[in-house]
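Structure first, sequence second, as always.
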């Protein structure tokens, strides 16, 4: 029962949909903070951030709202996400972030390799018992469609379109693999968000030393407490003004830079440098970093991160409403390929994480920086702590640069092993 353009959801007014999403978020936060035993027990098992994501996806799946037809995701990803990145990075301690580079980089590269080899291995596995699922000729060759998933899961949408232009799968095949891309990636994000609620158990399994991550969180908390004060209306307007103001400036420059590169240096498209969204994310993060060296850093004491978190949770809800879990029945074979693919990615991360005793934070963010990109890597990172959101952004930017190359190499391997 995948929603199509002709299938009208029960609620089509985006103002109503936004109201529903915000009520869901408020209810989740209210109940998760409750001292009632039933809620305490429930949220000890189910992380609150997972519900913020899952409930909108159920509403979408059963035709109550439509992520496909709504403009809320576009609004959240272009306005609220950049603003949240600015507000998260205002209190950034670059020296402490730099200390995380080794383990963060290792798990990110592991995630990239897992995606690159996962596609070919998934084709090999499925072709051993159902070769018709991964076969096909010409534009309908399944490996051509899967190449676009490789680009998407290493870099993002721009890299996915680069693979589409390069290998030219048929429109029908491309439509099917987009569904696989969205559903499987969102299922994986749900798994990672669940993992954030049991981080200590996972770290014990890895025998991980999470002191570097804990030190950063502790230093941010100490700094926040040292400048904490009751916010005035002026303080709140300053936070909103800087967050959305810098977002506007980022859009302004992105609208100049991306088209200029597309005209004068089109070969840079392979690095996603012709993507407007890429520049919005990069500029918003860079401006936030610059502000962390000014008095704007003190806005953390009056709730900069808290307001940034509100923006990011609205983003979580709009991402959730993109997923239609009932779409699995329409192309079960291709979904099986996708699930095997992401499982190989997960297995490699678990092996390397266990061998290197890496904290789960690095596994989760390194993975999501590949599979989800800049739109969702900071969400997973901030689920651990708002101060860690920039780590997800910085890794996702590397993903943009590697996406076309990694996707291309993965596609060549898939072509080689395809029946």
């Amino acid at each position: 029962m995948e929603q199509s353009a002709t299938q009208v959801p029960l609620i089509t007014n985006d103002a109503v949909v936004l109201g529903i999403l915000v009520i869901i978020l408020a209810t989740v936060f209210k109940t998760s903070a409750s001292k009632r035993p039933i809620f305490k027990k429930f949220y000890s098992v189910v992380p609150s951030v997972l519900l913020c994501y899952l409930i909108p996806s159920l509403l979408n799946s059963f035709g109550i709202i439509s992520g496909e037809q709504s403009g809320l995701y576009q609004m959240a990803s272009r306005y609220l996400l950049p603003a949240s990145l600015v507000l998260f990075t205002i209190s950034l301690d670059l020296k402490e972030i730099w200390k995380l580079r080794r383990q963060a980089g290792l798990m990110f590269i592991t995630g990239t390799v897992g995606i690159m080899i996962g596609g070919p291995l998934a084709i090999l596995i499925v072709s051993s018992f159902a070769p018709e699922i991964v076969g096909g000729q010409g534009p309908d060759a399944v490996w051509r469609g899967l190449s676009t998933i490789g680009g998407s899961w290493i870099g993002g949408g721009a890299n996915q379109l680069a693979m589409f232009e390069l290998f030219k799968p048929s429109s029908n095949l491309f439509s099917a693999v987009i569904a696989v891309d969205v559903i499987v990636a969102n299922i994986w994000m749900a798994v990672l968000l669940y993992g954030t609620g049991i981080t200590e158990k996972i770290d014990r399994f890895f025998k991980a030393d999470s002191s570097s991550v804990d030190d950063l969180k502790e230093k941010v908390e100490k700094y926040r407490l040292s400048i904490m004060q009751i916010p005035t209306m002026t303080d709140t307007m300053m936070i909103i003004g800087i967050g959305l103001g810098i977002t506007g400036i980022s859009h302004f420059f992105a609208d100049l830079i991306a088209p200029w590169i597309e005209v004068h240096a089109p070969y840079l498209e392979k690095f996603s440098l012709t993507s407007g969204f890429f520049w919005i994310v990069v500029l918003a993060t860079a401006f936030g970093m610059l502000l962390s060296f000014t008095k704007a850093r003190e806005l953390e004491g009056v709730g900069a991160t808290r307001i940034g978190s509100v923006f990011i949770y609205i983003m979580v809800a709009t991402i959730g409403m993109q997923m239609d879990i009932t779409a699995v029945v329409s192309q079960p074979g291709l979904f099986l390929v996708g699930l095997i693919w992401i499982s190989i990615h997960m297995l490699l991360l678990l092996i390397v994480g266990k061998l290197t005793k890496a904290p789960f934070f690095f596994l989760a963010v390194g993975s999501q920086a590949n599979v989800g990109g800049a739109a969702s890597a900071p969400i997973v990172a901030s689920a651990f702590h708002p101060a860690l959101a920039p780590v997800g952004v910085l890794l996702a930017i590397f993903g943009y640069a590697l996406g076309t190359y990694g996707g291309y190499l993965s596609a060549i391997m898939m072509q080689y092993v395809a029946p």
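Margin note: The chain has one domain: 72-417.
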